[in-house]
């Protein structure tokens, strides 16, 4: 949709550079946001506990973050919603430091997470449960996005790693003690999240952003060469093998139409919501943008244009 009006500012919060962000990088690189009349600015953020304040205060208009952060933000008084999802399964694995081989070896140890309330926080709880452990068995420590080096050196006992760090760890010979990606657990892992009041007042801007991002997602799936170029540049990946793995992970796990899975959302809500908190899906997910584009035949058009099912 070309426009002669001044472009609409639209700030997108990026909490963790990962292959789940590829559709947004691709849309930016291919000029798809410009074509929609949006001036998109990508803003580096911490995520987790910052989700609610950043969106409510208008520092960003949308955040790329998992639904667990939405649940926690709304419990603290925010009113934010996921309008789409770039991954509806957990895409990370729990790696341990050298010498930590069994679940009991983790007891009393320190687990590194990016930030409190982040997907690395919530999915670590899932992984511990699969090992017969709980959060009380370990100490959680915020150490940011770059967590491969700390677990490799033993600075932390364990940490969750998503792409491209998961592939880098595997390439180094590290073996995950729990690989949640392999289990394909339904989980709204990479939401496109907005403040509800802003969404209500700016539904057209949100629709333009969604339209461009989804077209970029289809394009990235259809054109592996261009997608890997964009992904490699964005994440500074120079190892061709790791780049291939990170792209393959993206292609296998990204819903082309960015539809937020209700099953994946319900799983997050059931796991993360505090006692007494709402379990109503509509309090965390808003389907208006997706449903509007579906009714207009947009996703059918994208599938036919890019020959992607």
CATH fold naming of the largest domain: D-Maltodextrin-Binding Protein, domain 2
Mean pLDDT: 94
The CATH architecture of the largest domain can be given as 3-Layer(aba) Sandwich
Shape: globular
Task: Give the ordered list of helices and strands.
Answer: EHHEHEHEEHEHEHEHEHEHHHHHHH
Q: Give the full name of the CATH homologous superfamily of the largest domain.
A: Periplasmic binding protein-like II
- Total number of strands: 10
pLDDT under 50 segments (min length 5)? none
- The number of helices is 16
Can you give a write-up of this model?
- The structure is a single chain.
- This protein is of the alpha/beta class and 309 residues long.
- The protein folds into 2 domains: 8-89 and 187-306, D-Maltodextrin-Binding Protein, domain 2; 92-183, Periplasmic binding protein-like II (D-Maltodextrin-Binding Protein, domain 2, 3-Layer(aba) Sandwich).
- It is 45% helix and 17% strand.
- It is built from 16 helices and 10 strands.
- It has helices at 22-29, 32-35, 51-56, 67-75, 103-106, 119-130, 148-153, 165-171, 180-183, 196-201, 203-222, 224-235, 240-253, 262-272, 288-295, 298-306, and strands at residues 8-14, 38-44, 62-65, 80-85, 92-96, 110-113, 139-142, 158-162, 176-179, 191-195.
- The strands form 2 sheets. It has a 5-stranded mixed β-sheet with strand order 2-1-3-10-4, with helices on both faces. A 5-stranded mixed β-sheet has the order 7-6-8-5-9.
- Helix 1 packs across helix 11, helix 1 crosses helix 12 (224-235) and helix 11 packs across helix 12 (224-235).
- It is globular.
